[in-house]
Amino acid sequence: MRVCGFCNGPGVNQEHVWPDWLRKVILESRAAGGMKHFHAEIERGGETKKFKSPKLEMKVGMPFESCNHGWMSGLENQVKTFMTQMVYRGDKTLLDPERQTHLMRWILKTAMVYEFTSAAAQRKYFSDAERLAFKERFEIPQNLWIWVARYDGVRPMHSVQHRAPKSSDSPPRIYSLTLSANFLTVQVFAFRESEGDLGQVARATKPERLLQLFPASPDWMSWPPPITIDDEALDVLDTRFVKVLGGSVPRRVEI
């Protein structure tokens, strides 16, 4: 029996990678332009699968019911009031420190769940202890960065994950996830101390296209950044850490 990655509870729910409320916002936004089938991309097992869908439903068997309908639902309620305007039309949104904290936690929760879209036997970057500490105390793993961007292109749902090395003998030591929900794009990057100071790569990120959400500053943040990224720039964003660190880019597959 599969167990919850957060609480180790027996049995899991089928959780939407993009929560149901967020998926409905995306569908409503795109349908307003007359679209009926929507481009989507999701990375699974080293391949980025591309397809068209009228519902944009993508599920992962991971959280236990009490987690899904408890603290995880609480995170959704904390972000949906201001995330809706970011996702629906990409409208200017002011993020005070509290909103930044809520959004950062929502993104990290999503990344921890997203790792379970891969095969059960594939080693995860975030450890059992890190997921439990996040559930219990919202404790953030070390050496972690999160950015937010504004995207305007043809892919309302898009996700690419990289973990290195890919050996099954030990857990990955480097992790990145780029995930888009209509106009909102987020990126997570993390690494283990054994890899040295890879933070120099993260610290070199310029704010014209990506606003750093974490590590956070005490200041208010005005989203979006000055430059909106397009489809070409999104592809560059997907692979920027892979190219720097010398890994392989996931193969794209039409389905």
Structure commentary:
It is a single chain. The chain has 255 residues and is an alpha+beta fold. It has one domain (14-254). It is built from seven helices and twelve strands. It has helices spanning 20-31, 65-68, 71-88, 97-114, 128-137, 199-203, 231-245; strands at 14-16, 38-44, 47-53, 59-61, 93-95, 144-150, 157-164, 174-181, 184-191, 211-214, 221-223, 251-254. Strands 10-6-9-8-7-2-3-12 form an eight-stranded mixed beta sheet, sandwiched between helices. The longest helix has 18 residues, at 71-88. The chain is globular and about 45 Å long. The relative contact order is 0.18.
Keywords:
255 residues; alpha+beta; 8-stranded mixed sheet; two-stranded antiparallel ribbon; globular
Write the layout of secondary structure elements.
Elements: E1 14-16, H1 20-31, E2 38-44, E3 47-53, E4 59-61, H2 65-68, H3 71-88, E5 93-95, H4 97-114, H5 128-137, E6 144-150, E7 157-164, E8 174-181, E9 184-191, H6 199-203, E10 211-214, E11 221-223, H7 231-245, E12 251-254
Parallel strand pairs: 2-7, 3-12
Antiparallel strand pairs: 1-4, 2-3, 5-11, 6-9, 6-10, 7-8, 8-9
Helix pairs in contact: 1-3, 3-4
Any idea what the shape is? globular
Number of structural units classed as domains: 1
Give the total of beta strands.
12
Report mean pLDDT, rounded to a whole number: 85
Level of helix content?
25-40%
Beta-strand fraction estimate = 25-35%
Query: Radius of gyration from the CA trace?
Result: 17 Å
Return the string of H and E elements.
Answer: EHEEEHHEHHEEEEHEEHE
* Total helical segments: 7
Runs in which pLDDT lies below 50 for 5 or more consecutive residues are none
Strand order of the main beta sheet, please?
A: 10-6-9-8-7-2-3-12
Oligomer: single chain
Structural class: alpha+beta
- The first-to-last residue Cα distance is 30 Å
Largest sheet: 8 strands, mixed
